[in-house]
Every structure is written in structure tokens, then in C-alpha cells.
Specification:
By secondary structure, the protein is an alpha/beta fold. It has two domains: about 350 residues, Rossmann fold, CATH 3.40.50; about 110 residues, GMP Synthetase, Chain A, domain 3 (2-Layer Sandwich). The chain contains 16 helices and 21 strands. It has a five-stranded parallel β-sheet with strand order 4-3-5-6-7, with helices on both faces. The chain has a five-stranded antiparallel β-sheet with strand order 8-9-10-15-14, covered by helices on one side. It has a four-stranded mixed β-sheet with strand order 20-19-18-21. The longest helix has 22 residues. Bound molecules: zinc ion. It comes from Georgenia daeguensis. This is Phenylacetate--CoA ligase family protein.
Amino acid sequence: MSEDREDRLTLTGVAWDAWRTTRGGPFAVASRQEVRLEALVARARSSSRFYADHYRSVPPGPLGPGGLRRLPAVGKPALMERFDDWVTDPAVSRTGVEAFVADEANLGKDFLGRYVVFTTSGSTGEPALLVQDPRSVTVMTGLSYARAAGALPPGLGRRIVAQGLRQAAVFARGGHFLSTTMFERRLRAHPVRRRYTRFFSVLEPLPDLVAELNAFRPTLLATYASTLALLTEEQEAGRLRISPVVVTTGGELLLPAVRRRAEAVFGCVVTEAYAASEAMPLALPCRLGSLHVNSDWFVLEPVDAAGRPVPRGARSDSVLVTNLANYVQPVIRYQLGDSVVLGAARCACGSPLPTIQVEGRTDDILRLPGTDGGVSVLPMALATVVEETPGVRRFQVLQRAPASLSVRLDVDPGADREDVWRRVRDRLDELLRNHGCGPVDLALADEGPQVSPRSGKLRHVLAAVQERPEEASS
Ligand SMILES: [Zn+2]
């Protein structure tokens, strides 16, 4: 597709092209990425005052193969500070977008009749305002149509039809968050969906949420991973009685234990997507359960702490993302902050798209003093050790000081809190020693885990240096 044609993308065009690209192999992926990248960078340099300044020392003209690395990276604070220079449409201004999102009645409406706006909750840093043009929204939807179904087992459609299509979205209200906004937008575009789709807020009391889900009996359920863990316990306890066919999670770390337990308790498929408000959908699952990066539309560059590229198969400290679809607010080599591993080998499903493992989304990587310098402990390791301790219902680990961890714990009904805590402490102690940490003080907190009051998400691991006031207050 030429750049000119790509300005007028259609949903079927994107879906068809995505299908052909996957069939075409690594070369088809790379060539699309290259053409789209040149077009995006040219647009950013000509129409965004921010990028015109930022790239002043980079020679004009095509970047050529591998040329992306010559462009300096960008971060959210610098872009937000120069919001009006960042966007390529002079009709879009920070004051205008702020006024738009301040009105909750605008949820699911398009800004200026043509742009989709997301706000981030600020649970992982300062809030951002993200504007997507129609081109970007078409790619978002087209990719989901073409690639998201790959993870579902055959015969699923028949099961859903047999039980009745009822779709529940269990997310947070109170902001123009990605999931909430896209949900409301689809309802506005197709009011008929209101017959079989319903929104539930994770911020309402659990017994109310359980009662409403029991009445609705969803066959499809989308929610955060921590909410899924909670609903799984409610189902086990017999209070929740639903039989979804597919559960989709995103936005948080989905622990393997939580996934296995949910699949067993609900007897359903649990899938996971990787998306950011800056770039969506970054990765979608295949039938083998691997997440595949949509690298024909998004460039992901895993980097180390100094910003140097990290090879495939190795864990990164951060990741730079380039969104090839959105022209109104170009996102080029943008610091996303997630720690990822790009797969070194091709997935057995046959897709040429690289696989990815994601860590440190909403959870922090802890830096602890070691017997031989500083030690990094990944949230997945820490969370798995605590999560799989018998008797643990929900937990949160806070680093209060460089060598001091405080654990907030909810235990199963009937379990002895002190007993459970001793087991958690022993397992944590062992994990930290195996990581080469020096002595770390482990303490049980008086209070239970605190869900972010704004985003409704539960962050399992919080580092001292990055502790946010909203979670720290208790
Ligand atoms: Zn695969």
C-alpha cells in the first residue's frame, strides 16, 4: 500500500492486509514496517513543531534501513509539556482536550467529531492525554478483527451462540481510560449492542458486582487480572455463579497461577492482550498462548538502562515504542517503561510476528541491596512466590526502605493469618537469598492490599522510590 492509499484506510483493508502480512512471512512484515515508518517520520517532521525541533540534527530525507536508531528517543513529560507543538493538527490543543475529558458526558464521544481521546490514570507516573486519529482507530479495530480470534479454540462460536451472547466489561469508571472509552464508543456507534453488552465498575462494592454479574450471566467477560483473581474466589465460594466461555484480561500482570485457577474454576479460556494507551493493540495472543507483537504497525525496541538495544531473548529495562498508525500525535521511539523479552525463536504457530513476554507493567521491579552490589527482583517472581503460598487471597508488597519490605495480606477464610504470614516470609526470604540479596527486613502490614482508588487496579509490587501517594496512604 502506498502512503497515499494508507491515509484512507478501511477496516476490511487493514484486516485483509494484516492477514496477508502474516502469510507473507518476515519480509512482508519488515517491508510494511519500513514504508510506514518513513511516512510517519516525514509527517512528524513536517507537521509537528516538537519533532521538527527534536530531529533538527538528523539529516532530512529517508531514514533508510536501520535508520530509526538515529532518531533521539522521547519521553512522556517532554511531550506533555509541549502538547500543542507535539500534535500535527492545529485544531487540537491541550486546553481543548482537557476541557473535553473533564466532562464525563463526553465518554465514548469523539473529540472535534473525529479524534478518540484516552487519559491514563496516573497510577504509573503523570497522567497523559492521548489523541488517536481515524487512521489509528481503524488499525486498532482491524488488527483485533484479523488477529485476536487466533487464540480461541474451534467450536467456541457455537458455544457462545448456544448459551446466548452476553458480553460483560468490568473496568473502572472515572476517566477516559482506554478500555472504558473504546467500550462506550462501540455502544454509541452500534446502539443494538446495548442489548447484549453491559459495563460493570470494578470500583463498586464486591457483593453488588457479584449480584449484578449473577443476574447478567455473561458468556464473554473482559476485566483486569486482579479483578479476575477476585471473581475466581467468589465463584469458588459459591457466591458468584457464572459460566463465561472466554475471559479476556489486560492492563495488569496476569500471574500464571491466577490464569490456571480461573480456567479451572470457570471452565473457560483465559486470554491476555498487551496494549498501551499510546499504542494498541501492541501484541495479541495466538492459539498456543504466546503474545505476538503486531510489528507491521508498531515498532518495539527493547533497551537497557542506558538506552542501548537489548538482543532478542534477553530481558530489557525499558522499551521504546513507535506507533506507525497514528499521525495526529506521533509516538516515535517513546519510552514505555515496560520490561520485556522478545522471543529469539519463531513461534511454533507459524506466525512471522515476534513473540513477547511482558513484565513491570503496573508493577515495579525492586532494586535491593545485594551481597555483591544491587540486585533486581522481577515482580513476576516475587508475586508468584507469594501468590502460590497456601492461604493467600490477595497481597501487595511495598518497599518501605532500600532493604525493607512490607507485605499487605488478605488470607482465605478460616486460614490463620500468622501461619500464612510465616510461610510467605520464609518463601520470600528464600527467593531473595537465591537472588543474592543481602539481609532484607520483611514485615507484615496491619492493613490489607489497597486497590488504586482511581484506576481500580491492584498493583502487587511497589518500589519505595516510585511509591505513589494514592497507594501509600492507608
Ligand atoms: Zn504463536
